[in-house]
Amino acid sequence: MSYTLHRGDALTVLKALPDECIDAVITDPPYNSGGRTSSERTSRTARAKYTSGDAAHDLANFPGENRDQRSYRSWLTELLTEAYRAATEHSVAMVFTDWRQEPTTSDALQMAGWTWTGTIPWIKPASRPRKGGFKQSSEFILWGVKGTLNKDRDLYLPGHFIASQPRKGRVHITQKPVEVMQQLVRICPEGGTVLDPFTGSGSTGVAALRERRNFVGVELSPHYADVADGRLRRELTQDDFVLAGPEA
Fold first, then answer.
1. Which residues pair with 139 in a beta bridge?
2. CB 197 within 8 A of CB 6
3. Where is this region: Disordered (predicted)?
């Protein structure tokens, strides 16, 4: 197995990928949410949106969190269109979102050519309560397929996940649990290649390597690109993998 980590803008990198070179897209784009008003969603930093004021950690911010909904849909559609071109037949795309951006994310997925196939809830027990109303304890994974699902595989995956964000060793504001990501990457055939255009701290890549899949990632933030590269390199030492390495 191998990984390649591109440092730079996701759309620029995706446009340079060859046709039909990846087998699954699994990503958590900066979806510009986390605020009660349009002003809060588009003017505050990622840290201000997604961490409480008394948070003990001092995790770095990440870019791309200040698009309005129309520009977000246009931008995400272009990205998913390039991913569709680079994907093989029967590939699946999985995109994380929240309740605010779920409608526009489903629009972007379908406008890019993917056939929307379902929505998977990710329930986070450790999320904060909401005074006077219902706890917002779920994110959503929208998934679609290029063409049709490969029915020849003996594969049965869950329709929802229950897991809190990592606490011990957490290195990213919106870090995903590796145990959840390991189940998601199984949608990619063993030995295939998983693409994550928004690698963040590298959890998708770590999961892909553990599940015997190759990984191609893109990360704009120099800080988080370094974090992801370190995690992926450490994962490689656990097994007999091949390092394709980070790219400028």
1. 122
2. no
3. 27-50
Q: What is the mean pLDDT of residues 127-156?
A: 93
Which two three-digit tokens encode residue 67?
A: 């698009």
Read out DSSP for 18-50? PTT-EEEEEE--------SSHHHHHHS-HHHHH
Q: Which amino acid is at 223?
A: H
Strand partners, 92: 24, 145
Q: What domains are defined for the chain?
A: 2-247 (3.40.50.150)
Closest to 66 in 3D by CA, of 30, 101, 96, 100: 30
Give the start-end residues of each E strand in the chain. Answer: 2-7, 22-27, 87-97, 115-123, 138-145, 161-162, 193-196, 214-219, 242-247
Task: Give residue 36's pLDDT.
Answer: 53
Q: How many C-beta atoms surround the C-beta of residue 77 within 10 A?
A: 19
One-letter identity of residue 235:
E
Q: How far apart are the first and last CA of the chain?
A: 21
Rounded mean pLDDT, 171-177: 73
How long a stretch of residues is the chain? 248
Q: How do the residues of the chain divide into helix, strand and coil, expressed in percent and rounded to 5?
A: 30, 25, 45
For 104, the enclosing helix (H) or strand (E) is helix 102-111
